Amino acid sequence: MAEYVLAIDQGTTSTRAILFDQRLNVFGVEQREFPQHFPRSGWVEHDPEDIWSSTLEVCRNLMRLRDVSPSNIASIGITNQRETTVVWDRETGTPIHPAIVWQDRRTADTCSALKGAGHELFVASKTGLLLDPYFSATKIAWILDHVEGARESANAGKLAFGTIDTFLMWRLTEGRVHATDATNASRTMLFDIHKGAWSDELLEIFNIPASILPDVQDTAHYYGDTRAGMFGSPIPITSVVGDQQAAMVGQACFTPGMMKSTYGTGCFALLNTGSEAIRSENRLLTTIAYQLDGERTYALEGSIFVAGAAVQWLRDELGLIADAAESGELAALADDQQSVYLVPAFVGMGAPYWDAECRGAIFGLTRGTGSRELAKAALDSVCFQTRDLLEAMQRDWGQASNTVLRVDGGMAASDWTMQRLADILPALVERPKNAETTALGAAYLAGMKVGFYPGIEEFSKTWKCDRRYEPLLDEAIREQKYAGWKDAVGRTLSR
User: Fold this and answer.
1) Domain residue spans in the chain?
2) Is residue 262 within 8 Å of 99, Cβ to Cβ?
3) pLDDT one digit per residue (tens) for the chain, 495 residues
4) Are 379 and 424 in contact (CB under 8 A)?
5) 4-244 against 251-495: fold identical
6) Please, what CATH class does the domain formed by 4-244 belong to?
7) The domain at 251-495 falls in which architecture?
8) pTM of the entire structure?
């Protein structure tokens, strides 16, 4: 009898397998890290075989350690790092090149050339994305152009492309399924998010043959069964969803105007805009939040490159703290009379600035500035950047004015930081009891598809708040502090 749903959470630095019971509680977790490779400056790669072996290992280990057989698992849901690109041989299933990771910047010149040729507005109108190396299209073209014989093989229909979800499904089904879902397709820069189909015009712009592409299905969909040899007997795969969209589902942000923000190394904020794909005038991304029964729900997305990484910098480079958790405790002791600003542009600034050339800076230092004030400035920078995103979203979509922000990720555990976030926005901030929001989103969609979990309305009622933070800071002080932040950022921008 089925008692669990298995979520595969394939991330940038590790792969996890999580079992959820029928009450959506975590029954067991297994995790394995794998290496990233940096062959040249700006290049970031994974070995797809590392991703595959880690996936197989964590799933098998979890089932063995928890004494769970395939018959106990109702279905599998997959959530994944999104834009990372793999191209493999259809006959052998062997990748022809290392996976090019979403962080990789090797195709920056290609993107500049495409902008120079006047393609930027057209790409944005079809995909909701900026013409940037971040996304999959230019990565695919690079592989086809730099691996000997690859383009000829692709034109002959001998190669397959996929984001990581697609590659895992191909392997789990032994090549019987070549598919993805609408959320992952919407991050390739080849998918018309309004029509819900691959775009011939975009394929022509990026010089990519259609034969290489996977089928695109609903986010909750019966994709196929794992082969019997994988886990002992077949298990249906019934959900695929990009990691940030999965967190949105796990946070039960199903109503237009609801917003989630995930605070990891960086920060990804998504605002549900319902059936309307809002074209951003403030350099945000328009993306598909999920697609169910053929109906697409859209979101505005903003990315902050440095969130938790600012705290890691305090720990690893400055040695001001021994553990990330100490940052909030230290910040709470800071001198409030000092206005110290850290602009954490270690790799440029993300949304809404999108300035790859600007670099980090600290403003407002005095002789009395110490570790407490620097810790506070680092955490403040996350809060200020989130406000940048929220204000951009409000300018793009007026209905975002009364947004409640649901938070997850490592930084969300800090009470000081979350209260500061509510104060700076200003907005109500809610932290859920279940911290596994990304895996939960994938598991819920998979379980819902097979009737193991209830519909969206009932699921939304199961979401429980661990703690709610209301704005307490005086408005005049808040606006003064935010004005100081905007001034500091303005001084670092390259243009």
Assistant:
1) 4-244, 251-495
2) no
3) 789 999 999 988 889 999 999 999 999 999 998 888 888 887 889 999 999 999 999 999 999 999 999 999 999 999 999 999 999 999 999 999 999 988 888 898 899 899 999 999 999 999 999 998 889 999 999 999 999 999 999 999 999 999 999 999 999 999 999 999 999 999 999 999 999 999 999 999 999 999 999 999 999 999 999 998 889 999 999 999 999 999 999 999 999 988 999 988 788 999 999 999 999 988 899 999 999 999 999 999 998 888 888 888 888 888 888 888 888 888 888 888 899 999 998 878 888 888 877 889 999 999 989 989 999 999 999 999 999 999 999 888 876 567 789 999 888 888 999 999 999 999 999 999 988 899 999 999 999 999 999 999 999 998 999 999 999 999 999 999 999 999 999 999 987
4) no
5) yes
6) alpha beta
7) 2-Layer Sandwich (3.30)
8) 0.89
